[in-house]
Design goal:
Helices cover 26% and strands 20% of the residues. With 1039 residues, the chain is of the alpha/beta class.
Length: 1039
C-alpha cells in the first residue's frame, strides 16, 4: 500500500540548501499541510483523476502564504505526484475515511523540519520488495525474470514473452534528461499520460548539470550533493518500477571520458592526455573510479571510452582519442572498460563505431565526417581496437557513428552493425545511436526519404536504442506503425529488445535497481584517494619536448621573481568542457606556480594576449596587423619578463579552438600567441613554454628558439599543480607522445604507423636526385618524450627465437637509470614484417611498459609476443601469420631504437618442437613449455595453462591408432570454454577431429572421435587462462 508522508519523501531536502525557506521549520510544515489539504479537495472534485494543473516550482514560500489567489498556480509538482499516488490506489471508502481524519488533523499537526536526505534509500511500495527478489509485475508471484538465481537468457525470454509491442518499442529509445527533452527533475502525475508510461530504455544525462553548450552548469537542487542526486535518480527509477505494468528499470546513461559528467566528480585529464601516460594500471584505476562514482551517483551506463584512432591532427575531437596507434588505443581501452565494468557496476559504451576519426580534410559538416580510406586501413586501424575491447574486455555498449563509409551510413549498415559487430566480433550488448544519427539518414545523408524510413533502416541494420535531443515519440510511433503495417517484423523488435534487457540484467538493474547507500555517495564521489589518482594522471600525461642546457627543472631557491604570461596561464575552462565533471575546483598553472613557491619568490602575471584574435579564424589564412591593445598587452608581458629571472609562457588551445565541431585549417598557435612568445624570448631571459591544448601543434619556431617546452595537453583540474611539480623538479616528466607532431599542415596525413619510406628516411636524407622540394620528417615523432634523467637499454633476448604461427615468444631487455634522478621510462616494442605478400607498416607497436627506476637501478622488462602482433591481412582479406623473419625493435620512441633482433616464424612442418624443448620430449606447447609435464604427473593440483589460440602437442607412438582421449581441464573462474582436438599424420599439418565446449573442471572427461592413425595429437584452447591438469593418452610416445 502506498502511504502519503506529510513531510513528503518526494522532496526530502536539506534545509541548508533552500535559502528561500530561511530555515523556518514551521513555515515548511504549514505549506505542506495546506498543499496536501488543497490537493485532496481537488482530487475529490475531479473524481480522483490526475489534474492537468500548472506545476511551477515554489520559489518563495512567504509569497505563497501571503497571496492566496496564486494558490493553484504554485502547487508543487512533487506534492501533487505523491498525493495522486496515494489517492488512486485506495478504495473510495478508505480514501474518504483517511481524508476526513487528515483534514481534522491539519490544524493540530505539529510543525516539523524539512527532511534531510536519508543515509539509506528505501522505496515506497514495500509489498513489491520481497526478500531476495522484486515483484516487478506486481502479481504476487516470483516470475522467472524476477528470480535472481535464474539464468539471464531465461529471465530475458520470460520478460519478453510478457511484453506488449508498446512496452517493447519504449525500450528502444532514450529519453534525454532534465532541461534537454525531459522537463521535470522528478516524476509528475503527467508522466502517466506520456509515452514512457510503458517504460523507457534509457534516460540520458539526467540531472548531470549540463544544460546546453555555452551555458553554465544547472543550479537545480538535485545536481549536488551526490546523495541528493542519487536520491533523485532513485525516485525516477521508482516510477518505472512501481508505476509501470512490468516494472522494467530504466538505464541511466551519462558521459564519462574524463570522469563522470556530473556537477562534481573526480576530474581527469582529457582522453588524449591519458593516452600519453602509457600506463595500463592507471587506466584500470581511472576506469574503476569512473564506474564506481557513476553508480554511486545513480548512473548505470557510461558512454566511454572513445575507441577512435587519431588520423588527422586538425580534427576537432583529436583531444578525445588515446592516440594514433590502434594497438595502444586497444590496450588502454581494454583496461578502462575492465575498470568501469568491474563487478558489473556499470556498462561501458565504446564510441564511435566505425571509421569516425578519419574525416577527409578534417572537415565536419552536420554529418560530421567523410572518411575515405581503403578497406585494409579500416580493418587494421579502426576496427582493431573495437574488436579487441569487445573480445577481451566484454564491452557492453557500442555507440554507432554519424558518418558513412564507402557510400553507406554506418547507422543503417547491416554489414557493420550486425555482420561485423555481432557476427565477427561477438558483441552481445546493445548499440545506441549517436544523437540524431537516425535523423541524419534523411536530413543529411539522403538515404532515407523520411523519418519512418530512417527508423526501418536503422532497426533492420542492428540499432537497439535511438538517442537524440528529441521526444521519444518521434521514433517510437513510426516504429509501431512499421510493425503494424508489416514493414518490420516483431521478431526483429524482439531481437533488439533482448540485447537491451541483457545489459540491464548484467548490470544488476533487476536485482539492485536503486543506489541505496546515499551516505556512501557523498563519501565516494571526489574522495581524497580518487583525487590523488587524478593528480597522478595529470603528472604522468605531461611530455617534455625540449630541454636545452637543462633549463628545467627550475631551482626555486635561486629564483627571486618569475614572470608568468599567456592566455592559458590563468585559464580553467579546459578542465570543464562537456563529457566530464562540470563544476569542480580547478588549479590553473598560475595558481600552481604561486602555491609551489609559497611567497618565497614574487610571481609576476599578465595575460599577454587572448587565446584567439579578433579576426580569427580568418587570421589563419592571412596576417593582420597588431591592434593597439594587442601591442600594449604584449609590451606588458615583455616588461614583467625583464624584471624576472625566468619566464613561463602558457599557450595552446581551448574550447574555441578544439572540441566537437571545431576542426581547424591550421596547426599553428592561434591568434597572437606566437607574437607574444617571440617578444618574451627576445628579452634574453630563460623561457619555458607550457602548452595546454587538445591536438599536436606545428611549433617550429618555438622548437628552434625556446630552450624548454612542456606539452601538458588538457591536464584536468589538477593540471596546474602537476605542471608546477614538473617545472620545479618535484616530479620528473615521463610521458611519451602517442601522436605525431607534423612540421606543417601540408604533411597531413602524417601518422604512426606509416608505410616504409613514406617520409624519406624520417627526414634525415633527401629524396632521389637530392630532391628537397618539401619538408620531411616529424617535428616530434610517435613515442618521443624526454626526462630529467637518462636511460640505457641492454641484453635483448628473444625466447624462443623460432616459433610456429600460433606459438608465443617472449622478448626481454634490461633498462637502467643512468642519471641522478628517479624517473619513468616508457619502454616500447615495435615489430616489422621483413618480407610479406602485401605491403605492411614500417613498424607496428607491439608492446609497451612504463617503468619507474631509481638512480642506478636496473629492471628487466618482458614482452609476450603472440600471433596478434605478427598478423597481416592477406590478399583475400584474411588475418594470417606468414612464415618468415620479423624484426623486433625496442626503443625510447618509434625513431629512437636502442635494441633489435630477429624472430623467425616457421611453417608447422618446419619446427614442430621449439629449440627450448628437448629432442626426446614427447610433449611441446606454444607457451609455458616448462610446465608441460604437469599434464602427465597424476597430480590435479599442477597444470599447464594457456590462452586462446595456445595449444599443447603430444607425439604419439609410431602407427598409433587413436579414437579417444581423457582430459582434466582447470579454470579458476569456472566459465565455459571452447576447445579443439586436432590430429596430424606428419608434415606439421593438423586437422580438427573434435570441437566442443566444456564447463566441467577438475575431473576427467573422455572425448571420442573417429579412429585415426596419427603421429601427433594437439589440444587447442578457445579461451584465455585455461589449464590442462591431466591427460590420459596410452598412445603417447615414450621418451
Amino acid at each position: 500500500m502506498l502511504t502519503y508522508h506529510f513531510c513528503p519523501l518526494s522532496n526530502p531536502v536539506n534545509p541548508m540548501t533552500l535559502q528561500q525557506a530561511e530555515n523556518s521549520a514551521l513555515l515548511d510544515a504549514k505549506i505542506e499541510n495546506v498543499l496536501v489539504s488543497f490537493i485532496i479537495l481537488l482530487q475529490l472534485l475531479s473524481l480522483y483523476s490526475y489534474l492537468p494543473l500548472p506545476q511551477p516550482d515554489i520559489k518563495d514560500k512567504k509569497h505563497f502564504l501571503n497571496n492566496e489567489k496564486t494558490l493553484v498556480n504554485i502547487i508543487s509538482k512533487h506534492y501533487l505526484y505523491r498525493a495522486n499516488l496515494f489517492l488512486t490506489r485506495e478504495n473510495t471508502m478508505k480514501k474518504l475515511l483517511l481524508i476526513s481524519l487528515f483534514l481534522g488533523s491539519c490544524a493540530t499537526l505539529p510543525a516539523q523540519k524539512t527532511s534531510k536526505i536519508p543515509t539509506v534509500y528505501k522505496p515506497v511500495r514495500t509489498e513489491m520488495y520481497q526478500k531476495g527478489w522484486i515483484d516487478f509485475n506486481k502479481n504476487g508471484i516470483k516470475d522467472v525474470y524476477e528470480d535472481p538465481s535464474a539464468p539471464i537468457d531465461a529471465r530475458i525470454e520470460d520478460l519478453l514473452s510478457q511484453m506488449t509491442l508498446e512496452e517493447k518499442t519504449c525500450q528502444m529509445v532514450t529519453l534525454y534528461g532534465y532541461k534537454r527533452v525531459l522537463k521535470d527533475d522528478l516524476p509528475t502525475p503527467e508522466w502517466k499520460n506520456q509515452l514512457w508510461k510503458d517504460g523507457i530504455g534509457a534516460i540520458d544525462e539526467h540531472l548531470n548539470g549540463f544544460q546546453q553548450w555555452g551555458l553554465p552548469p544547472s543550479d537545480n537542487e538535485y545536481v549536488w550533493p551526490a546523495s541528493k542526486h542519487a536520491w533523485a535518480l532513485n525516485e525516477v527509477q521508482r516510477f518505472f518500477i512501481e508505476e509501470t505494468r512490468l516494472g522494467i528499470p530504466t538505464d541511466f546513461t551519462n558521459e564519462g571520458i574524463r570522469g563522470v559528467e556530473s556537477y562534481k566528480a573526480t576530474n581527469f585529464p582529457t582522453q588524449l592526455g591519458l593516452g600519453h601516460t602509457w600506463n595500463r594500471q592507471l587506466l584500470r584505476q581511472i576506469g574503476l573510479i569512473t564506474g564506481r562514482e557513476a553508480r554511486m551517483l545513480g548512473y548505470t551506463n557510461v558512454y566511454a571510452p572513445i575507441l577512435d584512432v587519431g588520423r588527422d591532427q586538425r580534427w576537432g575531437r583529436y583531444e578525445e582519442v588515446y592516440g594514433e596507434s590502434p594497438y595502444l588505443v586497444a590496450e588502454l581501452g581494454i583496461e578502462m572498460v575492465k575498470g568501469m565494468q568491474h563487478n558489473h557496476q556499470v556498462a561501458a559504451t565504446g564510441k564511435h563505431f566505425i571509421a569516425y576519426s578519419n574525416n577527409k580534410g578534417a572537415r565536419e559538416g552536420m554529418a560530421r565526417v567523410d572518411p575515405q580510406m581503403s578497406p585494409r586501413e579500416v580493418e587494421m586501424i579502426h576496427v582493431y581496437p573495437f574488436k579487441r575491447v569487445i573480445r577481451e574486455a566484454g564491452l557492453l555498449g557500442v555507440m554507432s557513428s554519424y558518418n558513412d563509409y564507402d557510400g553507406f551510413p554506418i547507422q543503417s549498415s547491416y554489414y557493420w552493425l550486425t555482420t561485423r559487430l555481432r557476427g565477427d566480433m561477438g558483441f552481445r550488448g546493445y548499440v545506441v545511436s549517436d544523437s540524431d544519427a537516425v535523423e541524419y539518414l534523411y536530413t543529411k545523408h539522403g538515404t532515407a526519404k523520411d523519418m519512418k524510413e530512417a527508423v526501418r533502416q536503422s532497426v533492420e541494420a542492428g540499432l537497439n536504442i535511438r538517442c537524440t535531443f528529441r521526444s521519444p515519440d518521434s521514433y517510437v510511433l513510426p516504429l509501431r506503425e512499421l510493425v503494424k503495417e508489416g514493414e518490420l517484423s516483431e521478431e526483429i523488435i524482439n531481437d533488439r529488445v533482448r540485447d537491451i534487457l541483457r545489459v540491464k540484467f548484467l548490470v544488476g538493474l533487476f536485482d539492485h535497481p536503486y543506489q541505496t547507500d546515499l551516505k556512501g555517495a557523498d563519501e565516494e564521489v571526489e574522495k581524497a584517494s580518487n583525487e590523488e589518482i587524478a593528480l597522478q594522471a595529470s603528472r604522468e600525461s605531461i611530455v617534455l619536448l625540449k630541454n636545452d642546457k637543462n633549463v628545467l627543472p627550475l631551482n626555486a631557491s635561486t629564483i627571486k621573481k618569475i614572470a608568468v604570461c599567456g592566455p592559458n596561464a590563468d585559464e580553467h575552462s579546459y578542465a570543464l568542457t562537456h563529457y566530464g565533471p562540470l563544476a569542480v575546483e580547478v588549479t590553473s598553472v598560475l595558481k600552481g606556480i604561486q602555491e609551489k613557491l609559497g611567497g618565497k619568490a614574487e610571481v609576476l602575471y599578465t595575460k599577454g594576449c587572448e587565446l584567439v584574435d579578433a579576426n580569427w579564424p580568418e587570421s589563419e589564412l592571412m596576417e593582420y596587423p597588431l591592434s593597439e591593445n594587442e601591442q600594449e598587452e604584449i609590451e606588458k608581458a615583455v616588461s614583467q619578463t625583464k624584471q624576472a629571472d625566468v619566464a613561463v609562457v602558457v599557450l595552446g588551445g581551448g574550447q574555441r579552438t578544439c572540441g566537437e565541431n571545431k576542426s581547424r585549417s591550421s596547426l599553428a598557435l592561434p591568434g597572437r600567441q606566437l607574437d607574444l612568445l617571440k617578444a618574451v624570448v627576445a628579452t634574453g631571459k630563460p623561457v619555458v613554454l607550457v602548452l595546454i591544448n587538445g591536438r599536436p601543434l606545428s611549433i617550429n619556431w618555438a622548437d628552434k628558439f625556446v630552450p624548454a617546452i612542456l606539452e601538458a595537453w588538457y591536464p584536468g583540474s589538477k593540471g596546474g599543480k602537476a605542471v608546477a611539480d614538473v617545472l620545479f623538479g618535484d616530479y620528473n616528466p615521463g610521458g611519451k607522445l602517442t601522436v605525431t607532431f607534423p612540421k606543417t599542415v601540408g604533411q597531413i596525413p602524417f601518422n604512426f604507423p606509416c608505410k616504409p619510406s613514406s617520409q624519406i628516411d624520417g627526414g634525415k636524407n633527401p629524396g632521389l636526385n637530392g630532391n628537397m622540394s618539401r619538408v620531411n620528417g616529424a617535428l616530434y615523432p610517435f613515442g618521443f618524450g624526454l626526462s630529467y634523467t637518462t636511460f640505457e637499454y641492454s641484453d635483448l633476448k628473444i625466447s624462443p627465437a623460432i616459433i610456429t604461427p600460433n606459438q608465443k615468444t617472449y622478448v626481454t631487455c634490461k633498462v637502467t637509470n643512468t642519471g641522478k634522478r628517479a624517473g619513468d621510462e616508457v619502454v616500447q616494442l615495435y615489430v616489422r614484417d621483413v618480407l610479406s605478400s602485401v605491403t605492411t607498416y614500417e613498424k607496428n607497436l607491439a608492446g609497451f611498459e612504463r617503468v619507474h627506476l631509481k638512480p642506478g637501478e636496473t629492471k628487466e622488462i618482458t614482452f609476450p609476443i603472440d600471433r596478434k602482433a605478427l598478423e597481416l591481412l592477406n590478399a583475400d582479406m584474411h588475418w594470417v601469420v606468414e612464415p618468415g623473419e620479423f624484426t623486433l625493435m625496442i626503443g625510447a620512441s618509434s625513431t629512437d631504437i636502442r635494441l633489435n633482433g630477429t624472430l623467425t616464424v616457421s611453417g608447422y612442418g618446419d619446427n614442430v618442437i621449439s629449440k627450448n624443448t628437448k629432442d626426446d620430449s614427447p610433449i611441446s606447447a606454444s607457451t609455458n613449455q616448462g610446465t608441460v609435464n604437469h599434464v602427465i604427473d597424476n597430480d590435479l593440483s599442477t597444470f599447464w595453462e594457456g590462452n586462446k589460440g595456445d595449444y599443447i602437442t603430444f607425439a604419439l607412438e609410431n602407427e598409433a591408432k587413436i579414437n579417444s582421449i581423457s582430459i582434466t581441464f582447470n579454470r579458476e573462474n569456472k566459465v565455459s570454454t571452447d576447445f579443439e582436438i586436432q590430429l596430424s599424420s606428419g608434415g606439421g599439418q593438423f586437422l580438427t577431429v573434435y570441437s566442443g565446449t566444456i564447463d566441467t573442471y577438475s575431473r576427467p572427461l573422455t572425448f571420442n572421435f573417429k579412429e585415426t592413425i596419427a603421429s601427433d595429437l594437439r589440444i587447442v584452447l578457445g579461451s584465455d587462462r585455461v589449464g590442462i591438469a591431466e591427460v590420459k593418452l596410452p598412445q603417447l610416445r615414450k621418451n
